[in-house]
Amino acid sequence: MLEVRDLHAGYGETQVIHGVDLTVDEGRFHAILGRNGVGKTTTLKTIVGLLPSFSGEVMFDGASVSRSRPFDIARMGIAYVPETRDVFGSLSVLENLRLAARLAAGTDCKWTVERVFNFFPNLASRRDNGGNQLSGGEQQMLAIGRALVMNPKLLILDEPTEGLAPIVVRQIFDKLKELKGEGMTMLLVEQNFHFATRLADTASVFGRGKCVWSGTCEALRADEDLHRQWLGV
Asked: Residue limits of the ABC transporter domain (predicted)?
């Protein structure tokens, strides 16, 4: 579903990623791991059009999206949950969801606002609260729910557990596991090694601005030398 070929990108004149290659198959869950500053978030932002690429190609569902605008990429079926969550603080939970759901109007909407409320009961009980009145965990649930009502073909999540209490991390884990069970195609960037490798089917390890290893999560968990070289502190 997603293929990234020899992608180079960065900020201004500063190059961050140097020839990233990445593949996410339909119906699979792929994780990207690596230390801070190795280009994981930069890769995601370039895929969804928030950063222009210097060179390389991003193919989604058989078509190039390398020069497409972010809202066009979203309409094609990629939903992005940013590390910063970016919920609209002045809008209620319900309004945040309804705004995102407009993008899926006229399509086969498997995910509706009410289904998101059933999926995240915490949000249902706070549907009239403003986005800035939610806890960090509730904001993360809202960010994921907002992506789901877009009815994406590919769900991309950047550090969904960052700054969350362990009980909320467990809730997010369970919900992503449910989505995986339903066949949702997902791409995850995550610092929590055990969280990522217990959920994902396959993984890529990033180092020095490129992908240095790809394979199954089972193989990744077993490779202690790889952990020490590219994932350890």
From this structure: 2-233
